[in-house]
Specification:
Length: 424
Amino acid sequence: MNITKNGLILGATALTVGSVAITGFGLRYSQTQAFVQESPKEIVDEVWQVINRRYVDATFNGQDWRGVRNEFLEKEYSNKEEAYEAVREMLKKLDDPYTRFMNPEEFKSMQIDTSGELTGVGIQITKEEETDNIVVISPIEDTPASEAGIMAKDIIVKIDGQSTEGMELNDAVNLIRGVPGSDVVLTIKRNEREIDFNLTRAKIEIRPVRARIEENGSLGKVGYIRLVQFSSNAAKEMREAIASAEAENVNGYIIDLRSNPGGLLNASVEISRMLINEGRIVTTVDRVGEVDSFNAIGRALTNKPLVVLVDGGSASASEIVSGALQDNDRATIIGTQTFGKGLVQSVRGLRDGSGLAVTIAKYLTPDGRDINKEGITPDVIYELSEEEKEALVEDRQRLGTLEDGQFRKAFEILSEKIAQTAQK
């Protein structure tokens, strides 16, 4: 199966909204499913082969990967469910929460893709390597989770009263998902406090870009663009937002990537090219050191002064854009340390209708920084107080206004940059 650039996702996690890029789908299931049903061991070997060819770590987490194959193929499996369980046990040896197996039902639920229409509570979660905690990467804006006040870095300790201690990521996702209109209670640990959030699952339509023109006396017009997800629609909507702002003769831009958990690689590259006229954007490196480079192509839509807002919920594709803008001295990055998720995955359909997400590469910023687990350090650190955070959670209309401290700081720095540009 061929993996296209459009089908690569960055820092893939389990998505409780079912949003992930799918490639290699649409196989001839009628023949292969019958084959796998006769020999469930074949699915074990197929997963092993994919990992053997594509996995980012050539040491396979220090495992004798050929020995692992022998271990699992020597066993007998009477049905597909036993084979699926064996696959999950095999993948545990990699100690990589982002490389995971999905049975046909789980895989089908993820084929909603990044089309922008999702079902769930609206959070992206991961399993931390060091602690095994189930952690929120980010709530998606205007979803049940964000409206209830769930935040990036919240730890999910219970789902409907069931402890998540020792729970696999896929199991947590399956418990959180459900029929629209049904409820799920997430118990969140935040700053040593435990809080219950009663969420009603919903069908969610995501608009990746929200934009407006801000006017301020002598400063003139400023374009404010909030990008909430790098979905398949994001580049198109971003292009329209910039074109509209340029038509209004704005003097500069504030781009808000806070709580943006990422998405498609090609969307991050396209959007970076709208803002950077020349220079490197990002490189991806696989396990044998092969480098795929993405560069600006001389077609930036604006050269106006630019500041970018980030926080702990800005992950993967958000970190590509902010890292590219920072390393190319194109923008001032403001806020707090980003999430630190510099991995690239492919998600592919297997012969029996199940699916496999595989970490295949890491990405580096233009200056060669590997930000996985490290994140992007803003040029200007501005931490909101707990009171300010709570106020923004309680009233989302304050976000991106002068009642939002980080936005206020961005506006202040952009004003300075516009004044400096006017003096040249």
